[in-house]
Amino acid sequence: MNTISPTVIFLIVLALLTLGLTIFWIFCRARRRGTASIDRMEGHDFEYFCARLLEKHGFLEVEVTKGSGDYGIDILAEKDGVTYAIQCKCYGAPVGVKAIQEAYAGRDYYDRMVGAVLTNQYFTAPAVEAARKLKILLWDRGYLESMLEE
Questions:
Q1: Spatial CA neighbour of 88 closest among 77, 101, 112, 72
Q2: In the prediction, which pLDDT does 33 show?
Q3: What pLDDT does 20 receive?
Q4: 3-class secondary-structure state, position 21
Q5: Which residues contact 102 (CB under 8 A, 6 or more apart)?
Q6: 72: which residues sit within 8 A by CB, 6+ positions away?
Q7: Average pLDDT per consecutive 10 residues, the chain (150 residues; last block may be shorter)
Q8: Which of 42, 38, 65, 40 is nearest to 53 (CA)?
Q9: Are 82 and 113 within 8 A, CB to CB?
Q10: Residue 85 bridge partners (DSSP)
Q11: Rounded to an integer, what is the distance from CA 13 to the centroid of its chain?
Q12: What number of other Cβ atoms are within 10 A of residue 87's Cβ?
């Protein structure tokens, strides 16, 4: 009966660990590259990207509104009987209160149940507070990345 030497076991474990770390590094790098390409999108391209992403996550009747005169809403959608008015912001800095106000006004204008702001960034503290008071959903970079991973 042959036995495997401790050196061989160590080398196998080391090889598996190296392979696992390499795969993890490639995954993380691809993930960063994916969101970096989003950061370079123009506003209207980002709106259509978000619309496709929402459709992939079960939203129905997803419609990108016309560019001007949209009352601050970029996407209208429905999921599980709930209607949404969504403001998209592709920024290079945190999103402020103005986007929350636009989503609030647009939600009412389009007679939707839920207003949301979807962004490639995060929100300022005043924006978070305004959203809480006005009952606007905040979908930030972390939420966007989690949607991309699914």
A1: 72
A2: 46
A3: 67
A4: helix
A5: 71, 72, 73, 87
A6: 87, 99, 101, 102, 103, 105, 106
A7: 78 76 55 64 87 94 81 92 95 95 95 96 97 97 88
A8: 38
A9: yes
A10: 76, 115
A11: 37
A12: 29
Tell me how crowded residue 74 is: count the other CB atoms within 10 A of its CB: 27
For residue 16 the two structure tokens come to 């598996």
The pTM for the full model equals 0.74
Question: What are residue 83's DSSP bridge partners?
Answer: 78
Q: What strand order describes the sheet that includes 60-64? A: 60-64, 75-79, 82-89, 114-119, 136-139
Q: For the chain, count helices (H), then strands (E).
A: 5, 5
Cα–Cα distances (Å) from 93 to 69, 107, 124, 149, in that order, read 25, 24, 9, 23
